[in-house]
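User: Just a sanity check before I run the rest of the batch. Below are the structure tokens for the first item. I only need the designed sequence back.
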């Protein structure tokens, strides 16, 4: 959230997380890799772009000299496979309208016959709110997904993925709506689209000074070039302000038309302060 304009009571996170996995560890079966990739794209990528637990980015920025530390926890399940992620995000206000953002991740995979845990990939982004006239504002968020993962839990080492997101926010307190249109270019892999599109929208309803209810939905172009479907997800969440500058949140997310169908619980703690 900016310090100079009336926007959503929550500042933003990453724009539509572009964390589709491309690794193909030789010791894993093809089915196992596909389940891992699907779960990781759903559970690791989705939280990457918005006020936790949302996945839709907003146009809010921190303001010069202000910092936001967002701690996001998530657990996704598919049958007997479980993927747990921790994605802290640090946003630093460089100017009134520009933020620098870094988001590393830790991943733990539990599946029949295999168990892995370690670093995931890291998002490095910049966010710029380039126009605003109450109640509308527009911005862009763009950056790189860096291959910092271990044990095949992310991009192949030495390869980088690029992403960009156009963001719109309509803020008529107590109701706020965000919409995103994004594109991701990932390292090429057999039978996989290198460039995919992303759309999402979120509604935030402020109940009182401390409580916000959220609903979010996102859809991504299927990375399989033989499929024309746009698998996505729906999410519901609650954000509670414990005190000024400190928020707690919980959310539940379910995939739509995805292979496999994933369900995910998430929780977060966000702290904001001035340098």
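Assistant: Here's the designed sequence for the first item:
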């Amino acid at each position: 959230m900016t310090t100079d304009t009336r926007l959503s009571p929550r500042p933003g996170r990453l724009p539509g997380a572009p964390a589709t996995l491309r690794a193909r560890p030789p010791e894993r079966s093809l089915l196992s890799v596909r389940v891992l990739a699907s779960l990781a794209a759903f559970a690791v990528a989705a939280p990457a772009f918005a006020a936790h637990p949302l996945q839709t980015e907003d146009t809010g920025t921190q303001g010069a000299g202000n910092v936001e530390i967002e701690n996001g926890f998530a657990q996704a399940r598919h049958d007997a496979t479980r993927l747990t992620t921790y994605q802290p995000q640090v946003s630093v206000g460089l100017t009134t309208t520009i933020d620098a953002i870094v988001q590393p991740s830790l991943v733990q995979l539990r599946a029949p016959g295999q168990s892995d845990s370690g670093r995931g990939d890291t998002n490095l982004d910049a966010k710029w709110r380039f126009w605003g006239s109450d109640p509308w504002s527009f911005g862009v968020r763009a950056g790189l997904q860096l291959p910092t993962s271990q044990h095949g839990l992310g991009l192949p080492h030495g390869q980088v993925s690029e992403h960009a997101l156009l963001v719109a926010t309509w803020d008529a307190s107590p109701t706020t709506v965000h919409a995103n249109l994004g594109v991701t270019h990932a390292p090429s892999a057999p039978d996989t689209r290198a460039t995919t599109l992303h759309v999402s929208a979120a509604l935030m309803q402020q109940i009182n000074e401390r409580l916000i209810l959220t609903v979010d939905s996102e859809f991504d172009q299927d990375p399989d070039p033989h499929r024309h479907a746009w698998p996505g997800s729906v999410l519901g969440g609650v954000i509670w302000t414990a005190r000024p500058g400190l928020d707690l949140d919980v959310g539940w997310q379910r995939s739509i038309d995805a292979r496999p169908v994933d369900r995910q619980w998430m929780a977060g703690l966000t702290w904001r302060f001035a340098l």
